[in-house]
Design a protein that fits this description.
By secondary structure, the chain is of the alpha+beta class. It has 17 helices and 28 strands. Helix 2 packs antiparallel against helix 5 (138-147). The radius of gyration is 24 Å and the shape is globular. The structure holds oxalic acid (OXD) and manganese (II) ion.
């Protein structure tokens, strides 16, 4: 329980307004967790997996209307539309609150309101922040227990007047006496609202029980609200993995990397190096919070405590460390359920057992042409179960970052790797991140989708101001030489016949080696119009000799293609009008000038 008056009052007001049948303050204990899982299993919402195959793990299927983050139902409610920027759906804060208050009224009838106190980041870290989520979904509680540090210890830390981000959530599906509950209760799509009040640091989510819409610590707090707090307070909240890399001489560096969703962040964070003597360890696979340390370097923590990863095409071949992380104590949502009580998905590495139930709860017919697991099916697994979790992943001081990487899927134009000339040029590289989308995949126009800093769906304010914030961070560094070096990578380059030029996965360590050595300046680079590129002979191809001839193409900077790229960059920048910082404009002009030389 709590002695925090403001918190108790807030909980009491919402419990009354939502007319919850009861209020449960989560202590985070394993007994509490087991009770909730047992209740969900008994009601038919969840299934306990076969103990001998997947100990202490559970299976869920969501409603077909509730399978992913809903970007068009996600709102940033800043006082003015301009403050939210062209990158966000804006709504007036007062109007949004009025609408949602109407929906919340009585929305928890027949349900328990759970109070989840949680810390994003190791308890007591000066980089961490506390949130308290109210929810009527027990599924959310058991997922939050994996994804965050939650329970009584957080209330103890909050004390009588500690600061917390209030996170209000309801699935929006009240239960009348005698009414049979749905297996996955939620509101219809047009009544789903994921709203952020950046200035007052509040999250109000309604109608969805799935993923980032409902586990409010992740995208809502740790990125959208935190990015706004970071701008005000002079730190960084980023959509970045964090990894430790040790070279054969035993020297270790930490790297953070931002790629748009579905570009392999989890795979890179858990990479198994293809070169002997190298070691990669995972600090986080999705989010990094960074602050300057007493020595002037940027230190990062992973605010999360678990992985909420996409299951399809994760296998012992593509990511064994992810597979081993979810071997027990995990939750699976919208994958297939095999007759022997385990899980299955497309690309898991073996054939689907006959009789497997698909995510729509039907015996799966492979001839139907439909996938057995939803494309956004997820596993929720404790980070501590990752075989290569870094010793310092819970260090409250964070880990010092030597390099930051940006990247995306670019079949042409963008070379395998290039380094920024300096911090501001690096910020420019972050601002032009883009990734190829196929029209079929997400119903967008095929081509490059610009996703600056991989933050397009996650920046809680005008992205032009966010670029400016990154520039200010560089200015604030007391020793510029201590700032992380910035790189742009592209594992996805193809030849004229559409064949991959680079093997990717564990072989990406060959590129990371060059980056590692550039941080120490023990290897040279060629200065080109777009940045600093490796000399061909500095990318180690021992063991992948057949790839060596591709390096000419992989490191090629084609001026025609880059001039076309500049047009697409200009088109994207135009959205920000005058708000685009002068430093970014200057970087863009300088690039165009170098290309013209
Ligand atoms: C995620 C995403 O789920 O970026 O991590 O979409
Ligand atoms: Mn992500």
């Amino acid at each position: 329980m709590t002695k925090h008056k403001k918190l108790s009052e807030w909980v009491r007001e919402w419990a009354e307004w939502c007319q919850a049948s009861q209020v449960h303050w989560c202590d985070g204990s394993s007994e509490e967790n087991q009770r909730l899982l047992d209740e969900m299993t008994a009601s038919g919402m969840g299934v306990r997996l076969n103990e001998s195959k997947r100990p202490n793990s559970y299976y869920f299927q969501s409603d077909p209307s509730d399978v992913a983050r809903v970007e068009d139902r996600t709102f940033i409610c800043t006082p003015t539309k301009e403050d939210a920027g062209p990158n966000n759906n804006w709504a007036d804060p007062a109007e949004m609150k009025e609408t949602l208050r109407g929906f919340y009224r009585g929305c928890m009838q027949g349900r328990t309101l759970y109070v989840i106190p949680f810390s994003m980041g190791p308890l007591g870290s000066n980089i961490a922040h506390i949130g308290v989520q109210l929810t009527d979904s027990p599924y959310v509680v058991v997922n939050m227990r994996i994804m965050t540090r939650m329970g009584q210890a957080v209330l103890d830390l909050l004390g009588e007047d500690g600061e917390f981000v209030p996170c209000m959530h309801s699935i929006g599906s009240p239960l009348q006496p005698g009414q049979k509950d749905a297996r996955w209760p939620c509101a219809p799509i047009e009544k789903k609202y994921i709203s952020h009040f950046s200035e007052t640091r509040e999250i109000w989510s309604y109608g969805s029980g799935y993923g980032g819409n409902a586990l409010l610590g992740k995208k809502c707090l740790a990125l959208r609200i935190a990015s706004y707090m970071a701008k005000e307070q002079g730190w960084l909240a980023e959509h970045m993995l964090i990894m430790g890399i040790t070279n054969p001489e035993g020297k270790k560096k930490y790297i953070a990397a931002a790629f748009p969703s579905a570009c392999g962040k989890t795979n890179l964070a858990m990479l198994i190096p293809a070169m002997p003597g190298w070691k990669v360890e995972t600090v986080g696979d999705d989010i990094a919070w960074m602050k300057f340390g007493p020595d002037g370097r940027l230190y990062a923590i992973n605010p999360e405590a678990g992985f909420f990863g996409v299951a399809p095409f994760t296998s012992m071949e593509t990511n064994p460390n992810a597979m081993l992380s979810m071997k027990e104590n995990s939750i699976f949502t919208n994958v297939g359920l095999t007759p022997d009580g385990d899980v299955w998905w497309e690309g898991i590495g073996h054939d689907m057992p006959a009789g497997t139930i698909n995510w729509k709860n039907q015996v799966h017919d492979p001839a139907s042409g439909q996938p057995c697991s939803h494309a956004n099916a997820r596993f929720t697994a404790p980070a501590r179960q990752c075989p290569v979790i870094d010793v310092d992943w819970e260090n409250p001081a964070g880990v010092p970052i030597s390099a930051m990487l940006f990247g995306g899927r670019r079949p042409s134009t963008v070379p395998l790797v290039h380094q920024a000339f300096d911090w501001n040029h690096g910020v420019f590289l972050g601002s032009i991140v883009g990734s190829e989308v196929t029209a079929a995949a997400i119903g967008l126009k095929a081509g490059v989708r610009r996703d600056p800093f991989a933050m397009l769906p996650f920046c809680g304010y005008n992205m032009a101001d966010y670029f400016g914030h990154w520039i200010r961070i560089g200015e604030a560094a007391r020793d510029k030489s201590q700032l992380p070096k910035i790189f742009y990578v592209n594992w996805f380059r193809k030849d004229e016949n559409g064949k991959w030029l680079w093997p990717g996965y564990g072989d990406n360590i060959r590129v990371l080696e060059w980056i590692f050595n550039r941080c120490d300046e023990t290897v040279g680079a060629d200065s080109k119009a777009i940045g600093l590129l490796p000399k061909k002979e500095d990318i180690n191809t021992t063991g992948i000799e057949s790839v060596a001839p591709n390096l000419d193409q992989l490191l090629d900077v084609n001026k025609e293609l880059w001039l076309a790229e500049c047009e697409s960059i200009a088109e994207n920048y135009a959205k920000f009008g005058d708000r685009l910082p002068a430093e970014i404009k200057a970087q863009f002009e300088a690039l165009k000038k170098r290309l013209a030389e």
